[in-house]
Amino acid sequence: MIDEFTRPLSPAERRTLESQASRFERDRPRLKRAILFSAVGIIGVLWLFTVLASDTDWRIITAFWAVLGGVIGAWAWREQAGGINRRLSGIRSAVHRDQADVVRIRSDAVVEFEEVEDEGAAHAFQVDENSIVFIVGQEFYPDARFPNTDFSVIRVYDDRGDLAEFWVSKDGERLDPVRRIDTPSRKRLTVPDCFAVVEGELADLEHILAR
């Protein structure tokens, strides 16, 4: 069975997001110091090499590297801090939005695909007598509890529609694959995108996905 629905954030999900926001707040001053120390260290070494290798007045060399170091440091800070600020803004927006989009999948049979290069893990779950749902991506590698007989993919978006956080809740028992499709065989198949549903049974999977 596959169910898709939207619900409010759970208390645990809200706490997780708020904890992440707090961590990003704490990281900003540390990031600034790290960039400053790195810039000073690198520029200092380059300054020393230039002074030793050049006949130019050391004051001119110092002025040159001071200006260049300031420009590089400011650029690095803007790039790194901008990423943190965007992430922080997205998390705060997601908490305020208070919505989680959930895809819940319950199944008693799954076929596992071996990975092709860096395409990520792929699984095909039989969700009713004639429907198969595909779960594909880097987030779905097998572990001690996945594949699972009852799991939910939880996505939280910010006000701009960007993904702020992603969880996989594993609420059933670990499900052993009925079989595995190896990498050479997978290369001959067209595996649908994540959450795609096709008609059929796992026994006929290779025929269904044949290119």
Explain this structure.
This protein is α+β, with helices and mostly antiparallel strands and about 210 residues long. The protein has 2 domains: about 10-95; about 100-210, no CATH class. Helices cover about 45% and strands about 25% of the residues. It has helices spanning about 10-55, 60-95, 185, 205-210; strands spanning about 1-5, 100-105, 110-115, 120-130, 130-135, 150-155, 165-170, 180, 195-200. The strands form 2 sheets. A 5-stranded mixed β-sheet has the order 8-3-4-5-9. Strands 1-2-6-7 form a 4-stranded antiparallel β-sheet, covered by helices on one side. Strand 4 and strand 5 (about 130-135) form a beta hairpin. Helix 1 runs antiparallel to helix 2. The radius of gyration is 25 Å and the shape is elongated.
Helix content: 40-55%
Largest sheet: 5 strands, mixed
Instruction: State mean pLDDT (0 to 100 scale).
Output: 88
Spatial sequence of strands, sheet with the most strands: 8-3-4-5-9
**Estimated structural class:** alpha+beta
What Rg is obtained from the alpha carbons, in whole angstroms?
Answer: 25 Å
The proportion of strand residues reads 25-35%
Low-confidence stretches: none
Overall tally of structural domains: 2
Number of DSSP-assigned strands: 9
Distance between the termini: 27 Å
Q: What count of helical segments does DSSP give? A: 4
